[in-house]
Amino acid sequence: MTYEAPAEAELEEIEPDTKDWTWVLDRPCPECGFVAGAVTADRLPEIVRDNATYWEIYLAADNARERTRPGVWSALEYGAHVRDVHRVFGERLRQMLTEDEPRFANWDQDEAAREGDYAGQDPEVVAEELMDAADEVATIYEKVPPDAWGRRGTRSNGDVFSVESLGRYHLHDVVHHLWDVRAAAKRATVAAYDASVTTYVESTSFSEENRSLLDRFLAELEPGDHVLEIGTGPGHDAKALEAGGVRVRRTDISEGFVAHLRTQGHAAACLDPLTDDLRDPVHPDVPYAAVWASATLLHVARDDFGTVLGRLAEVTRPGGALHVSLKEGDGEEWINRGHVEAPRLFVYWGESELRAALDEAGWDVLEVGHADGPLGDVWLDVLARRRG
């Protein structure tokens, strides 16, 4: 694997992080949402290893070296930093478990980034080293004796940690940096779809299991009503909706799917429901009669989901309908099975929290169905109505 590292002059200077983050041990982080008190010591190894799998995906992306904003690290630079964080905390844990109240050597992360030339490193090598470092420090956590979690160590600035509090502090650091590069999850998921358009189109068709959902949705509409579809994909649902007598605006965040739709003669738009203008470009002051979002918003980050629902409500007429289908469960997961080979990030929802998010965004839930999926999963099929 060969690449050309960016010249030092081409990189914007990174503003040093001089904040004291020890307060995250006492209260939730308002940025990444990490809650130290919710993490028990026995879960540290699992979460550290799970966190590392995200970096393996982000560092494999073609744009891993690109800085999305001036003065902010790229995914590569963050990944190299996280690798070194695991190494530093692994060494500190060893000290605490073998020495009586050791004092840790100072570690300047900004100096480490400069001296280590984070921006010029090989993403593939960094990914491998990060996975190894994460596994190594996770193994240390697994082997902490029950009576050793209270052993103490002191940072160079005088902050005192126990093995358990150091573990939570360590975990916040790597979790927070995933939040820093959260846009990488979207880019990786979109890239996975872009690379699989042909396979997806050839191996899928309109699911007759969705017929009752589509008919129930159409029952809320009148012939000729204008529907905004989020995530049209190969266009199977759009055709079925149009056969039911409504007009459909086809949109997708994947440029590959939009290109396919256009070759089929459709006026499809490449559109991100989180950031782009959702209004009809021909009649921007006329709201849509309804929104159809089948198996698409399950890729939206949990923190952004309410924003997307609110933006959809803003462009839908009062009393207008919304169909959303998501996978039921907790947390999130990278999946590389089905019609797309590359990993995609899926965000799972429980019915109660989904209902709450819809209500807060201005949607009255009419019904939530539960359906078994082909891969042993359960889908939540929502029909809602625009309040007001």
Automatic annotation (TrEMBL):
UniProt-listed Pfam families: DinB_2 (PF12867), Methyltransf_23 (PF13489)
Gene3D superfamilies per UniProt: dinb family like domain, Vaccinia Virus protein VP39
Name of the protein: DinB-like domain-containing protein
Superkingdom classification of source: Bacteria
Domain DinB-like: 62-179
Biological source species: Nocardioides panzhihuensis
